[in-house]
Specification:
Layout: E1 26-30, E2 33-34, E3 53-57, E4 59-61, E5 64-66, H1 68-75, H2 101-108
Parallel strand pairs: 1-3, 2-4
Antiparallel strand pairs: 4-5
Length: 114
Amino acid sequence: MLPASDGWGSATTGGAAADAAHVSGRIVAEHNYIRLPEGVPTAAVLYNRGGTGLTARDNLVDGRPADLVGAFDAANPAAPLGGDAGWMPVLRTRVTPAAALPALVGRHAGAGRL
C-alpha cells in the first residue's frame, strides 16, 4: 500500500516527529486496467507498506477481473494487507469502466495528443 494521501496526490508522512515504522493509509483502488509483463503475477501489483486499509474492486489485470488483495494475501500470508479502507469516493460524477481504458489511453494519451 502507498503512504496516506491528502487526496490531492501528495503523500502525508506526518513530518519529522512521525514514527518512521508506522504508515497510515486507507487506499481505494477501483476501476483500474493493469497490464503485466509475461511471468509477473497479479500478486506483484500491490505492495504492503503497513497501511491500515485497502479497498480494491472492479480491477482488470490483462483484461480479466482480478482480486488484487486476495492475490497479494495468498502470496504473502505472513504480511496480509489491511481490510476495507472504510470510505468510498463520493465526489466523482462518472467512472470509465476499466475495460474501456486501453482504447481510451491509446487514442488520447501521449506526446502531442493533449
